[in-house]
Each structure stands twice: as structure tokens, then as C-alpha cells.
Amino acid sequence: MELLKKRILEEGVVISDQVLKLDGLLNHQVDPELTMEMGREFARLFADQGVTRVVTVESSGIAVAFATAYELKVPLVFARRKKTLLADPDALCERVPSFTKGIVTDIMISRQYISPDDKILFIDDIIANGDAARGLIKIINRSGAELVGLGVVVEKCFEAGARTIREQGVRLESLAKIKSLADGRIEFEE
Ligand code: G4P
Ligand code: NA
Ligand code: NA
After folding, report:
1. Atom of ligand 1 nearest to the CA of 127
2. Any binding-site annotation on 129?
3. Residues 52/55/60/65 CA torsion (nearest 10 deg)
4. Which residues have C-beta within 8 Å of that of residue 1, sequence separation ≥ 6?
5. Is residue 59 reached through a cis peptide bond, with omega within 30 degrees of 0 on the bond before it?
6. From the UniProt record, which GO molecular function terms apply (predicted)?
7. What distance in angstroms lies between residue 12's CA and the mean position of ligand 3's atoms?
8. What is the spatial distance between Cα 188 and Cα 190, in angstroms, rounded to a whole number?
């Protein structure tokens, strides 16, 4: 998505060879017009798949997942992150490590909001190692719902997440693929 790449070049801050700060458009501030445009693109990519729910993980994925769900005219469900899990018999939970944050979190979706009849489109902001994404995919699989695909705004091609998820047979579409952040430069794939 050319508009998104332009905005990443204008507003992204290369912190290191591994980390690109995107607070101006994804992780702190949200541009509604750009976000709705991204939602339209995901809706176009996954049209005709019979999606019944969009899911994401709180918090940075919510805006673009909302935009996608709005376009597809289906509900958005965001997995909650809980520091301590209260016993909820209706919840599907997974423990996910975050290498960048150095912590472990539990993510959960209540069975009330995901059912075996669902066709799920999973939307997320950034895929790096993919731990959170693999955790949410496990929850979707355990629910009995069908995962039609995963749409991510930014794919860091030099980290293993996207590749390992595609190797599981999941269709993964990204709007911007970052090949390298070496020498303080943002280099896109293709
Ligand atoms: P994962 O999201 O692929 O599982 O990877 P990882 O554990 O490495 O990432 C932890 C968090 O850091 C994730 O946000 C992820 O989106 C974010 N992240 C990883 N690399 C980058 C990067 O280069 N730039 C930015 N801006 N973020 C990055 P999260 O914990 O899911 O949280 P939140 O953003 O929803 O609060
Ligand atoms: Na994030
Ligand atoms: Na996220």
C-alpha cells in the first residue's frame, strides 16, 4: 500500500537495526483516514471469504481491526490481556512471551464471542517474532472456528514471525513489508 509506505518513511523512526518506532500512525497516535484506508484494503483482500468476525489483540491492533470490521460489516473482537487470570470457564487463554518487552502475558477471548461457526479474519498492527499472533491463532483453533487469514499492517521480514505463520498454512497478507532497518534506513521488500 503506497500511501502507507510513504507515511512510514515520513513518520517512522528507526531506533535500531531491529526496531522501528511507529507511534505517529500505529502505536500512540491514530490517523483515522489512513486507518480507514487500511481497513478497506484488508476488506478487499479478504472479500468473498465469508468472514463473520474480525479479531485482534489489544491494544495497537484495535483501530485497524475496527476499520476492517466496519468495511466487512461484521463485529470486532479484541483478545484481552490479563495480568492475572480470574477463573472464567468461558475463556480461551494462551500465555505469550514478548521478547521485546521481556514479559509474559496471558491473552484471552471469551467463548461467548468466538464460536465454531465463525470464519475469523485476524488483523494486527506489526508482526515481529509472532508470539502474540501464534497465541491468538491457538485460541482461534481451540475455539473450533475457521481462520481465513491474518492481515498485518507492517511485516518485519527479517524476523521469523510471518514466515513461521505462513509455514503453518495460514494466509498472511501485509500492507508494508520491511526488509531491513540497517544503517538507519527503512528498506521495503519489492
Ligand atoms: P510479536 O508481536 O510479533 O509477537 O512480537 P514481539 O513479542 O517481538 O513484539 C512485542 C510487541 O512489540 C508487539 O506489540 C509488537 O507489535 C511490538 N513490536 C515488535 N517490533 C516492533 C517494531 O519494530 N516497532 C514497533 N513499533 N513495535 C514493534 P504488542 O505487545 O502486541 O503490543 P501493543 O502495541 O498492542 O501494545
Ligand atoms: Na504492537
Ligand atoms: Na498488536
Report:
1. 3
2. yes
3. -10
4. 37, 38, 41, 175, 176
5. yes
6. xanthine phosphoribosyltransferase activity
7. 17
8. 7
Q: What count of other Cβ atoms lies within 10 Å of the Cβ of residue 128?
A: 22
Verify whether ligand 1 is closer than 6 Å to residue 162 (CB atom): no
What value of ipTM does the predicted structure carry? Answer: 0.92
| pTM recorded for the entire structure | 0.96
Residue with cell string 518485519: 156
What's domain 2-184's architecture?
3-Layer(aba) Sandwich (3.40)
Q: Nearest-CA neighbor of 59 among 140, 141, 126, 151?
A: 126
- In the structure, how many helices (H) and strands (E) does the chain have? 5, 10
- What is the number of the ligand 1 atom nearest to the C-alpha of 181? 23
Question: Reduced to 3 states, what is the DSSP secondary structure of residue 91?
Answer: strand
Mutation choice for ligand 1 from 4, 15, 100, CB with most ligand atoms inside 8 A = 100
Query: Per-residue pLDDT tens for 149-176?
Result: 999 999 999 999 999 999 999 999 999 9
Q: For ligand 1, atom 17, name the residue with the nearest CA.
A: 126
**Protein residue whose Cα sits closest to atom 21 of ligand 1:** 19
Q: Vertex 170, ends 89 and 79: CA angle to 5°? A: 30
Instruction: Select from 126, 137, 164, 181 the residue to mutate for testing ligand 1; criterion: most ligand atoms less than 8 Å from CB.
Output: 126
110 forms beta bridges with 91
